[in-house]
Amino acid sequence: MLRSRFGASRIALKTAAAAVLRTDPEALDLSYTLGGKPYLRGLGHLDVSLAHAGDLIAVGVSGTGRIGVDLEPTRRRVPVGLLMDHICTAAEKRELARLERARRAAAVLRLWTLKEAYTKALGQGLRLGFTEFGFGPDSGLRTPEGAPAGADSWDFGTFPVRDGWLLSVACEDVGAVAALEDRW
User: Fold this and answer.
1) Is residue 96 domain-shared with residue 147, that is, in the same domain?
2) Region 1-28 average pLDDT
3) Which of 23, 73, 75, 148 has the lowest tally of Cβ within 10 angstroms?
């Protein structure tokens, strides 16, 4: 099962990128950075991200900057208090404490997926401490103290997908595609 999902997710990524590039997926060479972020060799102007959970696969493709995607089931039981201690800044904890219990679990899951999408876009994955940055209720990037982080080139969003899934996307817009060519 895991091997099939791994293969299917890589095919989905190459197929999505090929559609953007108007080329054959087999012409694309998928590789990984030392941090585990997928990239397409020789195509530094195109950034990709991948998430899979259950039977769903999410692929992000961007020609304007870095991109990260994360996907989680909303029905997943998470130990909210424990998770908050590991992923939330002090400012986020204060905001979450104001919510009723049922809404708090959904808000923690939203923060988890946003943070994972952002760290994937940065190429850090779970290596970057989730308490080192935060998100406000508007999905804007925040400092650990809760102040706006001044990340004007980034857009973040969280979306319900199918029945019972949450997808978060972190997408950077650096303007001209040429600005990415030096990255890879």
Assistant:
1) yes
2) 88
3) 75
Same domain, 61 and 100: no
Total domains in the chain come to 2
What percent of the chain clears pLDDT 70, i.e. is strictly above it? 93
Distance CA(60)–CA(29), nearest Å, equals 17
Residue numbers of the domain that contains 103: 70-172
Q: How many angstroms separate the CA atoms of 49 and 62, rounded?
A: 9
pLDDT for residue 53? 87
What letter represents residue 100's amino acid?
Answer: E
Does residue 61 sit in the same domain as residue 101?
no
Distances (CA, A) of 33 to 39, 153, 162: 7, 23, 31
Predicted confidence at residue 101, as pLDDT, reads 86
Hey, is 171 helix, strand or coil?
strand
| pTM of structure | 0.89
Same domain, 123 and 51: no
Alpha-carbon distance values, 20 to 39, 41, 112, 124 (Å): 14, 15, 29, 25
Is 178 inside any structural domain? no
Q: Give me 83's structure tokens.
A: 């998770």
Which H or E run contains 107? helix 101-121
